[in-house]
Amino acid sequence: MSLKLVHSGKVRELYDAGDDRLLMVASDRISAFDVVLAEPIPDKGRVLTAMTVYFLEALADLAPSHLVTADPAGLPADAAALGGDGGMDALAGRALLVRRAEMLPIECIVRGYLAGSGWKEYTASRTLHGTSLPAGLRQADRLPEPVFTPSTKATEGHDLNISFDEAADLVGKETAEKARDLCVEAYRRGAAQAERHGIIVADTKFELGFIDGELALCDEVLTPDSSRFWPADEWQPGTNPPSFDKQPVRDWLEGTGWDKRPPPPALPADVVRATSERYTTAYERVSGRSLSDWYGAAS
Ligand code: Q0Z
After folding, report:
1. pLDDT of 5-20, one tens digit each?
2. What is the DSSP secondary-structure string of 77-111?
3. Dihedral sign, CA of 129, 134, 137, 142?
4. Cα 18 from chain centroid?
5. How far apart are alpha carbons 10 and 36 in whole angstroms?
6. Which residue(s) pair with 207 in the sheet?
7. Residue 219 C-alpha to ligand 1 middle, in angstroms?
8. Which of 48, 54, 63, 138 has the smallest number of CB atoms closer than 10 Å to its CB?
């Protein structure tokens, strides 16, 4: 029996693992300018999975999570088919067995810096998520305090900001308050940990759900795919800092003059290699762990 595909994202898949469990599989695919590139980035899926497990463990005293195991020995035997010819070895380290949660219908975004749509809003109205901010802030400036900026899961493409009250209408006031407090504290702790090791987490998106009646951290947590990671030593307010992980890809693609419509040009091997190294470095710096100690390392 093969596992049933429940959800397919741009760079990852979700399978029904039976028994109210799901298998989250992170691929090595990468997207840039909203397009998935043809060349896999070696170890990217393992990095995102290892980083999620690292943070779920580090935050375990703050909130329960959906994590069951990342150990290949604990995955359903049928999962091996998802590794193709490589079987379970090809899946090791990039698959997470999790408990099925009743997901909140909101994206719990926390912003610690003024970037992306937050910066856009500030330039238009000197507000962030509808709340006034001091005048004179620059792009990429650190915010006085991290801000919870929930959004709805749009059916396709870009999510829609909603006010805290609209979030409360969707999930209930008590849950919205709990979600906000949990996410802001998880961001504070994750960002502080990363910043001690030279990486700024400008903002991040959490997905929460109820498991056994408790609000739990689900999905990926504080990864470069769910967050903006910046190299602290290249952070310069007034500029748009480079992405810690994807910058080599973006720079190279920009240099080709590609019009950003599929198909994208093929990435050269040195760009693939540099990008893979950036992901590995991000994991090792943020966690203090070695990727070679994670499941699926070449032996
Ligand atoms: C996560 C997603 C992915 C595509 C649903 N524990 C959970 N319980 C119920 N639902 C989810 C989870 Cl994590 C859930 N997503 C996002 C993950 C591929 C989309 F691996 N959607």
Report:
1. 999 999 999 999 999 9
2. GGGGGGGGGGHHHHHTTSEEEEE--EE-SEEEEEE
3. negative
4. 25
5. 7
6. 218
7. 6
8. 138
